Amino acid sequence: MTLTIRQYEKYLGQIWNKCFKVLDDIKDSVRVAAASLARVLTGILTRSLEVGESSMKNANAMLEHVLPFLLSTSGLESSAEEVQAFALTTLLQIIKKSNGKILRPFIPELVERLLGLLSSLEPQAVNYIHLNASKYNLTEQKIDDMRLASVRGSPLMESIERCLDLLDDDTMKQLVPRIESAIKNAVGLPSKVGCSRILVTLSTRHSFLFTPYADSFLKLIEKSIHDRNETVSSSYGAAAGYVARIASDKQILATAGFCKRLYFESEDDRSRLAAGDIVLAVSKHAPDRFAALAATLLPFVFVAKHDSHPHVRQLFADTWADHVAGARAVLLYVAEIVALALLHLDSPRWVLKHTAARAVADAVVSIAAAGDEISRQNAEVVWPALDKAMGGKTWEGKEVVLEAFVKFVEKGRLLWGVDKGVGAHVQKVVVREAKRQNKAYRPFALRALGQVARAREDLNMSEVVCEIVGGVVEELVSNQEDGDKMEVDGGEDIVRDSAT
Fold first, then answer.
1. 92 to each of 95, 113, 142, 198, how far by Cα in Å?
2. Is 166 within 8 Å of 106 (Cβ atoms)?
3. How far apart are CA 245 and CA 216, in angstroms?
4. For 165-169, what is the mean pLDDT?
5. For residue 348, how many other CB atoms are within 10 A of its CB?
6. Three-state DSSP state, 317
7. What does pTM read for this prediction?
8. Average pLDDT, stretch 229-233?
9. Residue 393: CB partners within 8 Å, gap ≥ 6?
10. CA-CA distance, 298 to 439, in Å (whole number)?
């Protein structure tokens, strides 16, 4: 009997299916025979995938039968480990050896399924160790780093990248919704990291095909960055930097706006860390795009690099250092920096209030260091923010703002020397600060009083200085006689940055 090609494909598919179904048979002899036959069939299939144009239709028809089966509960989703392992090996061989034209129609589904398999095929022991890290003298972060390295070297990831190398315009259109679905539905660190990694690959190695879709994926990353796992969040942050290379200016600005909201409106450190991850990634991986939008991005970076959280502070400080050389650069953005800081000097959240105050202080010191005198224009810009930063109770680190205030008095004569209202208020502020009773803050305040008195040659502050210093001396003498009785005045406790 002579078989047609279609009949041959049908019978081969049936044999393949039956062969896989008995790979987990209860009898060892049946499993051995089935495995041997499966290997033969795999050899036939892979050889047919390597042939030229003449047998392409045959190979394509075979894949139509074989791939759905390999991805089904009888293959990769089988409960039998032997079946699962053989199906995976077969699938990886198919992807590795297939002609591009043969495999291309199946790429969208393959990529989505392979991304899911990164987590489902991860050994269960890894999850156990992750949950019981302390018992093995490990940290969750160290385990996640090892899992991340495993994903990067995974044969599944290699197969995914092989699929991406075979893309064309039509296949990319079909692949995009599959990747979106994979990102939204991914469960487990390996799959989530795998999703972020293919965004990097598409942005770097296949940018011509991926550019039309870059904006939508940069927008999608905004949701994924909230993942509770720091490794996943950082991976998507890095991916944002690569995608920004080919995204539109409009979308990059929208992402910058998202980072600002994430930083200033969220209640936790993790959100500010995520904002820092995205901004630093754009700075490092898309420096030309960042530089083009520096007027919008750098004022925010300058303020955020004064955050009280060391890791958040470092992320933004590194970004600032990548694009700015020297303190004079602050002069270019002083108006924008001060405007942004002013918005948050009245924040009910101490971490933002203190960050804004430190940013204003740094801006004043940088401007003062740029020349012999602060220009009246710049002095008028920074004075309202500096005055507001000096207000309120003392807090840990406020001496930085006080030092900036002294610099302003020493070099801001073009404002307070002409505007008598400002000059009188400067005296009022320094006297108020010198009278504060906080033990840690008082030495800085007294020193500032002396420095301001020396700088204000237009005033004779000797009487008020003697009054304040005399009171301090009397109190010290009294404390030596009666013991340390000095208390913080008026219940004014030091406010720490950790308060929220």
1. 5, 12, 29, 17
2. no
3. 14
4. 93
5. 7
6. helix
7. 0.84
8. 90
9. 492, 493, 494, 495
10. 37
